[in-house]
């Protein structure tokens, strides 16, 4: 009896946590855009002009200045574009029937699949939304639906990372990590200056510059780790969910004296090509 109460409590807490994650999505997006926007403003008003010095007399400094400017604008456009696309692209649902309870007594498509689950030969269905579950699909308990090639639910994009937006998500992380390290590389002098009391010639207040630099270093390191982890998963043809399932399958196979082979693994290069949808069609 106590275990039932405990189980119900855990399930209610889990549901409440998922509802909170869903509700705070727009706040996280506003926070992410605000922080990236702050760092971008600091970069173009303080870091860039202090690193790329314009000199009328030298052609090379001018070329260097323009190359730096083109690279900087390109990075900012890529960061915001991929972030926007990761947020706005639907990760890929199974069937567009919704999961709300209908008021009428008519059986829904879920009811039909629930009945069919009784028959063992029927294709796999999701035990939570009672809809067909294609290979590599997984149920997101925050969005309360199955998502194709589900990786995880990311509160920072208020969206699942799945089949259709995984590429945007990864490229957003890649550009942001490069941007953070670049910021730290060319912005350490203004940062040190912002900590002092004198020699400040910029209109941007010192605390914003210090905060942006610290954010760039912290996010660059944290996201750099996560980004590397995702590249590892992609070159080994696994989603985050599959990684844990594959670990289990590998251990089980080893105990039987067998070797587990991931059926989606085509080799690092082809896995990468398939993920980025380049090269020959597979
Ligand atoms: Zn489901
Ligand atoms: Zn989700």
Automatic annotation (TrEMBL):
Keyword set, alphabetical order: Acyltransferase, Lipoprotein, Membrane, Palmitate, Transferase, Transmembrane, Transmembrane helix
Subcellular location: Membrane
GO molecular function, one term: protein-cysteine S-palmitoyltransferase activity
Membrane disposition: Multi-pass membrane protein
GO CC, any one term: membrane
Domain Palmitoyltransferase DHHC: 122-247
Catalysis: reaction(s): L-cysteinyl-[protein] + hexadecanoyl-CoA = S-hexadecanoyl-L-cysteinyl-[protein] + CoA
Pfam families from the UniProt entry: DHHC
Xref: PROSITE patterns: DHHC
EC number: 2.3.1.225
Transmembrane segments: 20-43, 63-84, 168-188, 208-234
Highest taxon of the lineage: Eukaryota
Entry-linked InterPro entries: Palmitoyltrfase_DHHC, PFA4/ZDH16/20/ERF2-like
Domain remarks in the Swiss-Prot or TrEMBL record: The DHHC domain is required for palmitoyltransferase activity.
Family: Belongs to the DHHC palmitoyltransferase family.
This protein's name: Palmitoyltransferase
Organism: Gigaspora rosea
